[in-house]
Amino acid sequence: MSIAQRLATLGLTLPAPRKPAFGYVPVAVENGLAWVSGQLPWEGEGLLAQGQLGAGIDVDAGRAVARCCLLNGLAVLEQALGSLDRVKRVVKVTGFVSSAPGFYEQPAVVDGASTLLVEIFGEAGRHARSAVGVASLPRNVPVEIEFTAAIG
């Protein structure tokens, strides 16, 4: 089954890829790897959520935001590669979680993106990961996700 078919089976649609607002590329491809720049939770022309985990945003909402970020990342990756079927394996995911003082559940939040990768790519979606709590993120979003994939 192709990745496009798998997405359809899961009831998922990739959003339109967004152009970077600043001086970077959304995906850099070199030596069989594709590095996807940090993705925010854009939904259409707006953001899915703003704020901090532990201060008005709970873990379940944070997981949904992480999934949204990942879908945006897959959209720019597909645009760069021509097809997500070129992904041989997701190698590494880094999730940044805007965290209020006393919030320590960053791994549970970033797991929203991790579990989605496994749903889409199967075993090839299993990856190394970092879940990092930060004081703030661009545009006051609660989560930003970046990842690296091995490609063929």
TrEMBL record:
Coiled-coil stretches are: none
The family database entries (Pfam families) matched by this protein are listed as:
YjgF_endoribonc
Please give the InterPro entries that the UniProt record associates with this protein: Endoribo_LPSP/chorism_mut-like, RutC-like_sf
For this protein, the record's SUPFAM superfamilies field holds: YjgF-like
Ranges for domain Endoribonuclease L-PSP/chorismate mutase-like: 6-140
This protein is called: RidA family protein
Give the originating organism: Siccirubricoccus soli
Lineage per the UniProt record = Bacteria, Pseudomonadati, Pseudomonadota, Alphaproteobacteria, Acetobacterales
